[in-house]
From TrEMBL:
Residues 4-121 form the Rubisco LSMT substrate-binding domain. GO terms for biological process: methylation. GO terms for cellular component: nucleus. The gene is Setd6. The keyword S-adenosyl-L-methionine applies. One of its GO terms (molecular function) is methyltransferase activity. It comes from Syrrhaptes paradoxus. This is N-lysine methyltransferase SETD6. Its main location: nucleus. The keyword Nucleus applies. It comes from the Eukaryota. Pfam families: Rubis-subs-bind (PF09273). It is found in: Nucleus. Keywords: Methyltransferase, Nucleus, S-adenosyl-L-methionine, Transferase.
Amino acid sequence: MVGEEGAFVLGWDEVLTEEELAVTLKVLCMSEEEFKEYKEQGGWEDDSEEEEHSLLSNEALSRLKTPCKKLLYDSVLLTLESYGSDLKAEQDLLNNKETYEKLSRREQQALHVRYGQKKILHQLLELVH
């Protein structure tokens, strides 16, 4: 369902792997009976529901049903826990010019990437909370 990478790609304004996330959320938030029916039908062949084909923009994420929001929220928390430091630590390092300049160019780039990832994840937390 999630693809080879096993991850979803989030941007500042929308989910970039929208189809994978939409299907995953739909399946994971199904009741046991709905899931049995889904399996018997072999998935959705001609699912014409509007939400299935719409972009998962930030606005759409904030309107998800409560079980899907909780699932996303908990998943984001687990992802954030997998980092060795929190968002504040990254901000502090970026704001401390002396310490930042002691980092190698590669470490500085990695810091910016981690900080951006964490900012997007925190934004998602706010959208689905």
